[in-house]
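Supplementary Data S3. Sequence and structure tokens for construct A.
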Amino acid sequence: MINQKWLTTFLKLAEVGHFTQTAEQLFMTQPGVSQHVQKLEKQLNVKLIERFGKRFELTSAGMQLQQYGQSLVKEQQQLLTDLQLDSEHVGECRFACSGSLASLLYPHFIDYQIKHQQLNVSIEAGPNRRIIELLTNNDIDIGIVTQLVSDPELEVLAIGYEHLCLVVPKSESKTVINYDELMALGMVAHPDAMHNWQQVVANNYKDKQAIEVRVVSYVNQLNQILLPVSKGLGFTVLPEFAVKSFSDVAAISIAKLDKQVKEPLYMIYKKHRPLPKRYQWFMDKTTELVNSK
């Protein structure tokens, strides 16, 4: 790595073109300036200046080093500016949440980014465990999970609930669908299906076992989960956000349950890593959308 002190001296010398003036501006002695240049030449194993009398010219290597050093200075100056800038409309915004919640949030986030194009929004969809891992590793700045996280390093804000929907084919639409009819249909499974189904059973079919269900299909793509249900193949359990975003809602029905099932939503972020101002709009918008009917 190039010695930064020697490089700074060389850049000032190349700019000023005079050893004495360089020494004065850097509060050094003239021999000190010469020594820095000589040490830099030795480190790089190239000649950087050609002296003639009291004057000098940069060699080809010296001109290359000057260009490199000037670009490095500009980058450092830009970095310092960026570090001190905390704009509501500039910078990267990194989130993670469930796929169903992402389908609700992302269109609104992108509309906001279009208005403020110096923002860069990213959302990663994943389960609670993955979201917490991403936050812990500083790969995201805000996560939204459905479990209360007990970690002294994290700030946890309750922002609302997501309602779980028991979705059946349109042909099965009834005021209340019974457990045996669901067993006959079978379940279209997805990564969170069994967890969701267990909550439905615990709240509405307490004398039954969730594991008894027959799985008729499995898919891990959110926008495909309701496709087999719409064609009459099985039921599934999804958050309301995902159901509302399905392209063919006329072909499915949300069964009415005796007891509505909902999961809490928590926004989590690092307690000792203050969020930039640009995150405030996204936090407010997320809370608003989660609680809108």
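Construct B, processed identically:
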Amino acid sequence: MKYGEALHAQALPRWAPYNVDYNELKNLIKAHTTKDQGSAIAIPGQINPALSQFEDIFYSELVAQHDRVDLFVKDKAGEIGRRLQHLHTVVLKLLSRLPYSNGRPMSNKRRERFAKYDNQIERCGEDVKQLQRFVDAQRIAFHKILKKYKKWTVSSFLVERFNQQVLAERKSFTRRDLTPLLISYRALLNDIREHTPDTSGPPTPRLSRRPSHQVQVERVPQSYWNEYDNGSEARDEPYTIYVDPNAESTFPGAKTVSHILSGVKVPMGKVKLWLGSSNASPPEQRSLLDGENRVSTPSRNAYFPAQIETDIDDDASSSDFPSGYATHYSKFPSIREQKFEQYKDKLIFQTTIASFVGSILLLLIASLLIMTGRHKLRVEVDVGAIMGVVASLFFATAGFGMMLYQNERVGWVQKFLVGATFTVVCILNGFLLVLIGENTGP
């Protein structure tokens, strides 16, 4: 087989366009050195202008072919170097997490990652070896072309010129050393395989007690990994998506839904506790026997478990409770409920004050509308004033109701102030309604 055909046949399909155009260069030499086509042949001792012109053209073509191959080799070597550097970073990060496993068996997901990075490192090594073979093939192609040119033109000037000015340069791809890439590839492969866990299963049990040999399970190399998240890394090569049948099946967004539900449970629990505590009877109205039965015979909805008898009697001390909270010896003390009751009383007191303030403000607004209303807009002014009076009475009633709700825990001073304010607001609102009736009269 001729070298041009062998060069094309042995090259990788995706790298074939970057090969030296060996057949075209060979045909170009034949076209300018054949006698039948009237081309000049070199005569020893004489300068051939046609041959000198052809040498310049052929030299330029050789330089262009060399630069194209050199650019490809440089880009490919840089790409492999970046891939190895990236793999070095992720492998170091993966290996740094191994000491924190605390002796636990490695998860299937981490095993898959080991297999994935091992395969990617192997591909980098194959690319380095293929690139070295590609460089050797192109070097041989240039050597053969120059040899044919020297044989058919009987001139060594172009051969010496191309060797000295192009191939002998340190930047030429023929001088590029791929050994550092091979060293990085082997070191990285050794690192990951030294820490890769053994995936082979235990040997199968003996078939019988008589024979002394055991049937060993042959280790099957792992030929798949999960690349669903980074499927683009496979490029044009086929890859397999592995689905673990033992994995817990969840729908997309399950974590988000569970987070929202857990956040809703907190305010719902507070509302439930509020409603439950409002319906419960005061501690001083509960029977002691009921508290004892609740402790000794817990029901299904009891909050505290049954008492456990011990040899040591622990006496409850009032010094163990924060100041401002009462101690109850007829049942288990609940500081949380007492805090909640104090918070509820404070909220009701603030709501009562806000209701009366709003009622007084609405009363003032209605009064200003009546005093400053124009005669032409009397109907609109009266409607606005009536709405203000109704809203003022509503807020005053709400404030008075808040005071009645906490009637058992309110002092006589607060009762007097709330009652007096409610009475004054009602009288003033009634007086405004009388003024509105007189204004709308005939």
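The longest helix spans residues 49-96. Residues 3-199+222-232 form one domain.
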